[in-house]
What does this fold into?
Amino acid sequence: MSSLLERLAEARKSGDVARLAEAIPYARWMRIAPENGTGELLTRMRYHRDLIGNTFLPAIHGGTLGAMLEMAAIFHLLWETETETVPKIVNITVDYLRSARPLDVIAAAKVTKQGRRMVNVFAEAWQDDRSKPVATASAHFLVTSTDEAPPSL
Amino acid sequence: MAKSLTTHEERVALFQTLFSDSIPHNKALGTKVLAIARGLASMQLDWREELVGNPETGVLAGGPLTAMLDSCCGMAVATLLKEPMPFATLDLRIDYAKPAVPGQPVIAEAECYRITRSVAFTRAFAHQGDPKDPVAAAAGTFMLGTKGIPTAAHGFRREAKA
It folds into this structure.
Protein backbone atom coordinates (compact mmCIF):
# COMPACT_ATOMS: atom_id res chain seq x y z
CA MET A 1 0.00 0.00 0.00
CA SER A 2 1.38 3.35 -0.93
CA SER A 3 2.10 6.04 1.65
CA LEU A 4 -0.39 8.25 -0.18
CA LEU A 5 -3.20 5.75 0.43
CA GLU A 6 -2.12 5.51 4.07
CA ARG A 7 -2.29 9.30 4.28
CA LEU A 8 -5.72 9.13 2.66
CA ALA A 9 -6.94 6.76 5.38
CA GLU A 10 -5.49 9.09 8.07
CA ALA A 11 -6.98 12.15 6.40
CA ARG A 12 -10.41 10.51 6.26
CA LYS A 13 -10.21 9.62 9.94
CA SER A 14 -9.20 13.14 10.98
CA GLY A 15 -11.32 14.89 8.36
CA ASP A 16 -8.27 16.98 7.41
CA VAL A 17 -7.75 16.53 3.68
CA ALA A 18 -4.66 18.80 3.67
CA ARG A 19 -2.63 15.85 4.96
CA LEU A 20 -2.78 14.29 1.48
CA ALA A 21 -0.33 16.86 0.15
CA GLU A 22 2.25 16.08 2.86
CA ALA A 23 3.07 12.76 1.15
CA ILE A 24 3.95 14.44 -2.16
CA PRO A 25 7.31 16.29 -2.28
CA TYR A 26 6.35 18.25 -5.42
CA ALA A 27 3.06 19.43 -3.83
CA ARG A 28 4.96 20.67 -0.78
CA TRP A 29 7.55 22.46 -2.92
CA MET A 30 4.81 24.11 -5.01
CA ARG A 31 2.66 24.86 -1.92
CA ILE A 32 -0.27 23.02 -3.49
CA ALA A 33 -2.68 21.42 -1.03
CA PRO A 34 -6.33 20.38 -0.89
CA GLU A 35 -8.74 21.99 1.58
CA ASN A 36 -12.32 21.22 2.52
CA GLY A 37 -13.18 24.02 4.95
CA THR A 38 -16.18 25.11 2.88
CA GLY A 39 -17.62 21.61 2.51
CA GLU A 40 -16.41 21.47 -1.08
CA LEU A 41 -13.06 19.92 -1.90
CA LEU A 42 -10.83 22.65 -3.33
CA THR A 43 -7.13 22.68 -4.14
CA ARG A 44 -5.11 25.80 -3.43
CA MET A 45 -1.72 26.83 -4.81
CA ARG A 46 -0.33 29.46 -2.45
CA TYR A 47 1.30 32.34 -4.23
CA HIS A 48 5.06 32.60 -3.96
CA ARG A 49 7.56 34.27 -6.25
CA ASP A 50 8.87 31.03 -7.73
CA LEU A 51 5.52 30.59 -9.53
CA ILE A 52 6.05 33.62 -11.75
CA GLY A 53 6.44 33.02 -15.48
CA ASN A 54 6.24 36.62 -16.66
CA THR A 55 7.87 39.26 -14.49
CA PHE A 56 6.56 42.21 -16.52
CA LEU A 57 2.79 41.60 -16.23
CA PRO A 58 3.44 39.92 -13.72
CA ALA A 59 1.78 36.54 -14.31
CA ILE A 60 2.00 33.02 -12.93
CA HIS A 61 3.74 30.46 -15.19
CA GLY A 62 1.27 28.46 -17.30
CA GLY A 63 3.07 25.24 -16.46
CA THR A 64 2.32 25.72 -12.76
CA LEU A 65 -1.40 26.16 -13.55
CA GLY A 66 -1.36 22.88 -15.48
CA ALA A 67 0.45 21.26 -12.58
CA MET A 68 -2.04 22.47 -9.95
CA LEU A 69 -5.05 21.49 -12.09
CA GLU A 70 -3.54 18.00 -12.37
CA MET A 71 -3.04 17.87 -8.59
CA ALA A 72 -6.61 19.14 -8.06
CA ALA A 73 -7.93 16.28 -10.23
CA ILE A 74 -5.85 13.71 -8.31
CA PHE A 75 -6.94 15.03 -4.88
CA HIS A 76 -10.54 15.02 -6.06
CA LEU A 77 -10.31 11.37 -7.21
CA LEU A 78 -8.64 10.31 -3.97
CA TRP A 79 -11.08 12.13 -1.70
CA GLU A 80 -14.40 11.95 -3.52
CA THR A 81 -14.29 8.52 -5.13
CA GLU A 82 -13.96 5.08 -3.57
CA THR A 83 -10.50 4.57 -4.98
CA GLU A 84 -8.29 1.73 -3.84
CA THR A 85 -5.38 2.65 -6.07
CA VAL A 86 -3.59 5.93 -6.71
CA PRO A 87 -4.96 7.30 -10.02
CA LYS A 88 -2.41 7.26 -12.85
CA ILE A 89 -2.55 10.21 -15.19
CA VAL A 90 -2.68 9.33 -18.89
CA ASN A 91 -3.01 12.81 -20.35
CA ILE A 92 -4.19 16.33 -19.64
CA THR A 93 -5.29 19.21 -21.84
CA VAL A 94 -5.12 22.69 -20.34
CA ASP A 95 -6.88 25.76 -21.75
CA TYR A 96 -5.44 29.09 -20.66
CA LEU A 97 -8.23 31.65 -20.37
CA ARG A 98 -6.69 34.62 -18.57
CA SER A 99 -3.28 35.53 -17.27
CA ALA A 100 -3.00 34.54 -13.60
CA ARG A 101 -1.91 37.36 -11.31
CA PRO A 102 0.45 37.02 -8.32
CA LEU A 103 -2.26 35.65 -6.02
CA ASP A 104 -3.32 32.24 -4.73
CA VAL A 105 -4.90 29.97 -7.34
CA ILE A 106 -7.86 27.78 -6.31
CA ALA A 107 -9.20 24.82 -8.28
CA ALA A 108 -12.22 22.53 -8.15
CA ALA A 109 -12.57 19.26 -10.04
CA LYS A 110 -15.44 16.99 -11.04
CA VAL A 111 -15.66 13.57 -12.59
CA THR A 112 -17.09 13.84 -16.10
CA LYS A 113 -17.14 10.10 -16.72
CA GLN A 114 -16.28 7.26 -14.39
CA GLY A 115 -15.44 4.03 -16.17
CA ARG A 116 -14.21 0.78 -14.74
CA ARG A 117 -10.61 1.43 -15.77
CA MET A 118 -10.61 5.04 -16.99
CA VAL A 119 -11.89 8.26 -15.45
CA ASN A 120 -12.31 11.60 -17.19
CA VAL A 121 -11.97 14.59 -14.88
CA PHE A 122 -12.63 18.28 -15.53
CA ALA A 123 -10.91 20.89 -13.37
CA GLU A 124 -11.24 24.66 -13.23
CA ALA A 125 -8.89 27.19 -11.62
CA TRP A 126 -9.62 30.74 -10.54
CA GLN A 127 -8.19 33.47 -8.30
CA ASP A 128 -10.36 36.05 -6.54
CA ASP A 129 -13.46 35.61 -8.74
CA ARG A 130 -14.73 32.11 -9.39
CA SER A 131 -16.80 33.32 -12.36
CA LYS A 132 -13.56 34.33 -14.10
CA PRO A 133 -11.51 31.13 -14.43
CA VAL A 134 -7.83 31.53 -15.34
CA ALA A 135 -7.48 27.99 -16.71
CA THR A 136 -9.47 24.78 -17.20
CA ALA A 137 -8.28 21.25 -17.84
CA SER A 138 -9.62 17.87 -18.74
CA ALA A 139 -7.60 14.78 -17.91
CA HIS A 140 -7.78 11.01 -18.16
CA PHE A 141 -6.68 8.76 -15.30
CA LEU A 142 -6.27 5.00 -15.14
CA VAL A 143 -7.78 3.70 -11.91
CA THR A 144 -6.77 0.05 -12.08
CA SER A 145 -3.63 -1.25 -10.40
CA THR A 146 -2.49 -3.65 -13.13
CA ASP A 147 -0.81 -1.19 -15.46
CA GLU A 148 2.74 0.11 -15.33
CA ALA A 149 3.72 2.67 -12.75
CA PRO A 150 2.58 6.19 -13.62
CA PRO A 151 4.85 9.14 -14.30
CA SER A 152 3.38 11.21 -11.52
CA LEU A 153 1.92 9.34 -8.59
CA MET B 1 18.85 43.07 -29.27
CA ALA B 2 20.18 45.10 -32.14
CA LYS B 3 23.00 42.65 -32.60
CA SER B 4 22.41 39.81 -35.03
CA LEU B 5 23.20 36.48 -33.44
CA THR B 6 25.52 34.35 -35.42
CA THR B 7 26.78 31.49 -33.29
CA HIS B 8 24.82 28.68 -31.69
CA GLU B 9 26.51 29.33 -28.34
CA GLU B 10 25.36 32.96 -28.38
CA ARG B 11 21.78 31.90 -29.15
CA VAL B 12 21.77 29.28 -26.41
CA ALA B 13 23.17 31.85 -23.95
CA LEU B 14 20.52 34.42 -24.97
CA PHE B 15 17.66 31.91 -24.63
CA GLN B 16 19.09 30.70 -21.31
CA THR B 17 18.94 34.30 -20.06
CA LEU B 18 15.49 35.09 -21.47
CA PHE B 19 13.70 31.76 -20.90
CA SER B 20 15.40 30.25 -17.86
CA ASP B 21 17.33 32.71 -15.71
CA SER B 22 14.90 35.63 -15.96
CA ILE B 23 11.73 33.53 -15.52
CA PRO B 24 11.43 32.81 -11.79
CA HIS B 25 9.64 29.48 -12.16
CA ASN B 26 12.10 28.12 -14.72
CA LYS B 27 14.96 29.34 -12.57
CA ALA B 28 13.42 27.53 -9.59
CA LEU B 29 13.12 24.35 -11.68
CA GLY B 30 16.71 24.83 -12.87
CA THR B 31 16.01 24.37 -16.57
CA LYS B 32 18.98 24.50 -18.93
CA VAL B 33 18.73 25.45 -22.60
CA LEU B 34 20.58 22.85 -24.69
CA ALA B 35 20.01 23.85 -28.30
CA ILE B 36 18.29 26.53 -30.37
CA ALA B 37 17.69 26.55 -34.12
CA ARG B 38 15.06 28.11 -36.36
CA GLY B 39 11.73 26.59 -35.23
CA LEU B 40 13.46 24.25 -32.77
CA ALA B 41 14.37 24.38 -29.09
CA SER B 42 15.72 21.92 -26.55
CA MET B 43 15.85 22.14 -22.76
CA GLN B 44 17.00 19.95 -19.86
CA LEU B 45 15.52 19.43 -16.39
CA ASP B 46 17.62 17.66 -13.78
CA TRP B 47 16.01 15.24 -11.33
CA ARG B 48 15.61 16.60 -7.83
CA GLU B 49 13.89 15.26 -4.71
CA GLU B 50 11.59 18.33 -4.47
CA LEU B 51 10.12 17.58 -7.92
CA VAL B 52 9.11 14.01 -7.07
CA GLY B 53 5.45 12.99 -7.18
CA ASN B 54 5.78 9.62 -5.50
CA PRO B 55 8.46 9.41 -2.78
CA GLU B 56 8.35 5.59 -2.84
CA THR B 57 9.46 5.39 -6.46
CA GLY B 58 11.28 8.73 -6.81
CA VAL B 59 9.46 9.33 -10.09
CA LEU B 60 9.07 13.00 -11.07
CA ALA B 61 5.60 14.54 -10.76
CA GLY B 62 3.80 15.50 -13.95
CA GLY B 63 3.93 19.21 -13.09
CA PRO B 64 7.65 19.84 -13.69
CA LEU B 65 7.37 18.14 -17.10
CA THR B 66 4.32 20.26 -17.97
CA ALA B 67 6.15 23.47 -17.03
CA MET B 68 9.28 22.48 -18.93
CA LEU B 69 7.38 21.42 -22.08
CA ASP B 70 5.39 24.68 -21.99
CA SER B 71 8.61 26.71 -21.80
CA CYS B 72 10.36 24.67 -24.46
CA CYS B 73 7.44 25.07 -26.89
CA GLY B 74 7.47 28.81 -26.13
CA MET B 75 11.17 29.01 -27.00
CA ALA B 76 10.52 27.25 -30.33
CA VAL B 77 7.90 29.93 -31.09
CA ALA B 78 10.33 32.72 -30.20
CA THR B 79 12.87 31.47 -32.74
CA LEU B 80 10.38 32.18 -35.54
CA LEU B 81 9.26 35.67 -34.55
CA LYS B 82 10.25 38.19 -37.20
CA GLU B 83 10.02 40.98 -34.65
CA PRO B 84 9.89 41.02 -30.84
CA MET B 85 6.36 40.27 -29.68
CA PRO B 86 4.81 39.06 -26.43
CA PHE B 87 2.95 35.74 -26.64
CA ALA B 88 1.09 33.41 -24.30
CA THR B 89 0.11 29.74 -24.15
CA LEU B 90 -3.44 29.22 -25.42
CA ASP B 91 -3.66 25.50 -24.74
CA LEU B 92 -1.31 22.67 -23.91
CA ARG B 93 -1.87 18.93 -24.10
CA ILE B 94 0.49 16.51 -22.38
CA ASP B 95 0.48 12.74 -22.96
CA TYR B 96 2.32 10.90 -20.21
CA ALA B 97 3.82 7.98 -22.13
CA LYS B 98 5.81 6.37 -19.32
CA PRO B 99 7.43 7.22 -15.98
CA ALA B 100 10.68 9.18 -16.07
CA VAL B 101 13.58 7.17 -14.62
CA PRO B 102 14.44 8.66 -11.18
CA GLY B 103 17.79 10.37 -10.84
CA GLN B 104 18.18 11.00 -14.56
CA PRO B 105 17.67 14.30 -16.37
CA VAL B 106 14.74 14.80 -18.74
CA ILE B 107 15.31 16.46 -22.11
CA ALA B 108 12.54 18.32 -23.96
CA GLU B 109 12.71 18.89 -27.72
CA ALA B 110 10.13 21.24 -29.22
CA GLU B 111 9.26 22.28 -32.74
CA CYS B 112 7.15 25.21 -33.88
CA TYR B 113 5.83 23.82 -37.17
CA ARG B 114 3.50 26.63 -38.16
CA ILE B 115 3.29 30.28 -37.26
CA THR B 116 0.63 32.75 -38.43
CA ARG B 117 -0.03 36.39 -37.55
CA SER B 118 -2.02 35.42 -34.44
CA VAL B 119 -1.28 31.80 -33.57
CA ALA B 120 1.74 29.48 -33.40
CA PHE B 121 1.49 25.67 -33.34
CA THR B 122 4.03 23.49 -31.57
CA ARG B 123 4.83 19.86 -30.80
CA ALA B 124 7.32 18.54 -28.25
CA PHE B 125 8.65 15.33 -26.78
CA ALA B 126 10.38 14.73 -23.46
CA HIS B 127 12.85 11.85 -23.22
CA GLN B 128 15.82 10.65 -21.20
CA GLY B 129 18.40 10.10 -23.90
CA ASP B 130 16.49 8.24 -26.61
CA PRO B 131 14.10 10.54 -28.50
CA LYS B 132 12.33 7.46 -29.90
CA ASP B 133 11.40 6.38 -26.36
CA PRO B 134 9.65 9.46 -24.92
CA VAL B 135 8.39 9.86 -21.36
CA ALA B 136 5.91 12.53 -22.48
CA ALA B 137 4.59 14.24 -25.60
CA ALA B 138 3.10 17.72 -25.84
CA ALA B 139 1.08 19.82 -28.26
CA GLY B 140 0.93 23.52 -27.48
CA THR B 141 -0.78 26.43 -29.19
CA PHE B 142 0.33 30.01 -28.57
CA MET B 143 -1.45 33.33 -29.04
CA LEU B 144 0.84 36.00 -30.48
CA GLY B 145 0.76 39.71 -29.77
CA THR B 146 -0.63 39.44 -26.24
CA LYS B 147 -0.12 41.92 -23.42
CA GLY B 148 3.33 42.45 -22.00
CA ILE B 149 6.78 43.28 -23.20
CA PRO B 150 8.15 41.79 -26.39
CA THR B 151 10.50 38.88 -25.91
CA ALA B 152 13.77 40.06 -27.37
CA ALA B 153 14.62 36.62 -28.66
CA HIS B 154 14.10 37.40 -32.30
CA GLY B 155 17.51 36.04 -33.18
CA PHE B 156 16.22 34.13 -36.16
CA ARG B 157 15.18 36.70 -38.66
CA ARG B 158 15.59 35.53 -42.21
CA GLU B 159 19.00 37.15 -42.57
CA ALA B 160 20.35 35.42 -39.48
CA LYS B 161 22.58 32.52 -40.30
CA ALA B 162 21.07 29.28 -38.99
Observations:
- The helical segments of chain B are 8-21, 24-29, 62-78.
- The two ends of chain B are 17 Å apart (CA to CA).
- Residues 8-144 of chain B form a domain with the Thiol Ester Dehydrase; Chain A fold (CATH 3.10.129.10).
- Chain B touches chain A through 47 residues (CB under 8 Å).
